[in-house]
Write a structure and sequence with these properties.
Length: 258
């Protein structure tokens, strides 16, 4: 009787584990892509739908390559967690030395410019990373801003505060809880248009220009899919459809459903 109860308990425990997390890695033939739910205009979730440049671009490339695909909008921390355990791919990710040891990357998706945002009443004469020394800097949780920034953060040259969205970080900046926030140029351009951040300014000099990628875990069986993805992306660059998609997206035309 006791043995039966123990077996039942073990079965329920294993069942619970499978319900709360995938019990195996990604299917070799279907690409499930995690994107940041809080990084407009590049990737986001609104009304339970995934939107943004990266879902639209990845979807177009997958369609051209004949790759079945789906998207999951998550916090970036969760997206990296799923990538680390080979449960999903991730789009819109930067390369670093550490990540290249763990992931395989696509050809570049887009080139992002990382900018420094500050309060107009407390301006920062930003010219290089050293100008953030001893500052309180808001960053996106789970993001890497490049090897140089990551080393400076590890050396505690500044205090980095992790937020789950630009909006959260910018609100902390407006309240005086931060000295600066790192954001993507296009995202800040869009936010500045609504007038809610009139007391903020963007430094003319960028912190860095970083290519973004689609990444899969090196243990994933999906390397053939990534190779097909790269071939299709290169064809889109050559025939001009990549450039047309990006131009249409930033011209403000309604994006198609990814």
């Amino acid at each position: 009787m006791i043995a039966s109860i123990r077996r039942l308990g073990l079965t329920l425990l294993l069942l619970g584990a499978c319900l709360t997390a995938p019990c195996r890695g990604q299917d070799a033939d279907i690409l499930t892509v995690a994107v940041d739910a809080n990084a407009p205009p590049f990737m986001y979730e609104e009304n339970e739908r995934v939107g943004g440049l990266y879902p639209r671009l990845v979807s177009a490339v997958c369609d051209k390559a004949g790759i079945p695909h789906a998207f999951r909008a998550l916090t970036w921390r969760r997206a990296i967690f799923e990538l680390d355990r080979s449960a999903m791919a991730a789009a819109g990710i930067y390369k670093t030395v550490n990540r290249e040891q763990r992931y395989d990357f696509s050809l570049p998706l887009y080139q992002e410019r990382i900018v420094v945002v500050y309060l107009r009443q407390r301006p920062i004469d930003f010219r290089s990373l050293a100008d953030l020394d001893n500052k309180r800097v808001g960053v996106m949780a789970g993001w890497s801003y490049g090897d140089e920034f990551d080393r400076a953060r590890a050396d505690k040259r500044f205090s980095a505060y992790d937020g789950d969205s630009d909006r959260q970080n910018l609100q902390l900046l407006q309240r005086g809880n931060l000295d600066a926030v790192l954001a993507i140029q296009e995202a800040m351009d869009a936010r500045m248009q609504n007038g809610a951040y009139a007391n903020l300014a963007v430094a003319p000099a960028i912190l860095a220009s970083k290519a973004t990628y689609l990444a899969i875990n090196k243990t994933s069986p999906q390397l053939p899919l990534l190779q097909r993805f790269n071939q299709a992306l290169e064809k889109m660059r050559q025939d001009g459809s990549y450039q047309q998609l990006v131009k249409q997206f930033f011209s403000g035309r309604p994006p198609s459903k990814p």
